[in-house]
């Protein structure tokens, strides 16, 4: 039963918060509007603060809830790490919307806030500092993602958690590849720009 938790995590991660929030607020589908990414930043750009806040909360909650339940039901580091990876992959490649998911930043944050709270808080602080300094959400996400394995090794040097940190980092960088190209080209949208 323990190794069914990653599958449960994947299914929870597949709940497309940005798409559902867009429908509730009467907004266009985020997969076909703005940056075409079903995530908080895109919703913020074309939908405003309220729907973006709901999207962010929902995506963070997905990651946090899965890890919290698994910590109670099957508190094994490997099962926890695989369940965290499952919810993250569900967000990236959701089965319910033809595998067209977001970039996973908020869901990864939710995973870390419960799995290793100090890692989650450091990642959040890193994101905020970079975002305020440079006003690029993608750059903030990339810097935080690249520091995640370092924070995990420092604060929770458990092999399964380190592997999770590396896996999430690699996937986040991969999902941000178009943003990386835009950052180098000087065409990436800044926070607050429409």
UniProtKB/TrEMBL annotation:
UniProt-listed Enzyme Commission number(s): 2.3.1.275
Pfam families, alphabetized: G3P_acyltransf
GO CC terms, sorted: plasma membrane
Localization of this protein: Cell membrane
Membrane topology recorded in Swiss-Prot or TrEMBL: Multi-pass membrane protein
Transmembrane segments: 7-26, 79-97, 109-134, 140-173
GO biological process: phospholipid biosynthetic process
Molecular function, one GO term: acyl-phosphate glycerol-3-phosphate acyltransferase activity
Listed name of the protein: Glycerol-3-phosphate acyltransferase
Function: Catalyzes the transfer of an acyl group from acyl-phosphate (acyl-PO(4)) to glycerol-3-phosphate (G3P) to form lysophosphatidic acid (LPA). This enzyme utilizes acyl-phosphate as fatty acyl donor, but not acyl-CoA or acyl-ACP.
Keywords for the protein's UniProt record, in alphabetical order: Acyltransferase, Cell membrane, Lipid biosynthesis, Lipid metabolism, Membrane, Phospholipid biosynthesis, Phospholipid metabolism, Transferase, Transmembrane, Transmembrane helix
Pathway linked to the protein: Lipid metabolism; phospholipid metabolism
Catalytic activity as recorded in UniProt: an acyl phosphate + sn-glycerol 3-phosphate = a 1-acyl-sn-glycero-3-phosphate + phosphate
């Amino acid at each position: 039963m323990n190794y069914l938790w990653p599958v449960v995590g994947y299914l929870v991660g597949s709940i497309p918060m940005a798409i559902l929030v867009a429908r509730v607020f009467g907004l266009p589908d985020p997969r076909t509007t703005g940056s075409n990414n079903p995530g908080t930043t895109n919703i913020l750009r074309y939908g405003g603060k309220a729907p973006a806040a709901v999207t962010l909360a929902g995506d963070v909650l997905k990651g946090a809830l899965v890890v919290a339940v698994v910590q109670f039901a099957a508190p094994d580091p490997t099962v926890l790490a695989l369940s965290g990876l499952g919810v993250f992959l569900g967000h990236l490649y959701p089965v319910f919307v033809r595998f067209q998911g977001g970039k996973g930043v908020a869901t990864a944050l939710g995973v870390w806030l419960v799995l290793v709270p100090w890692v989650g808080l450091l990642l959040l602080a890193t994101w905020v500092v970079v975002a305020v300094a440079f006003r690029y959400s993608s750059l903030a996400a990339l810097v935080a993602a690249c520091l995640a394995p370092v924070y995990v090794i420092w604060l929770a040097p458990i092999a399964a958690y380190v592997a999770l940190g590396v896996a999430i980092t690699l996937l986040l960088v991969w999902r941000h590849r178009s943003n990386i190209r835009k950052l180098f080209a000087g065409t990436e949208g800044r926070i607050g720009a429409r």
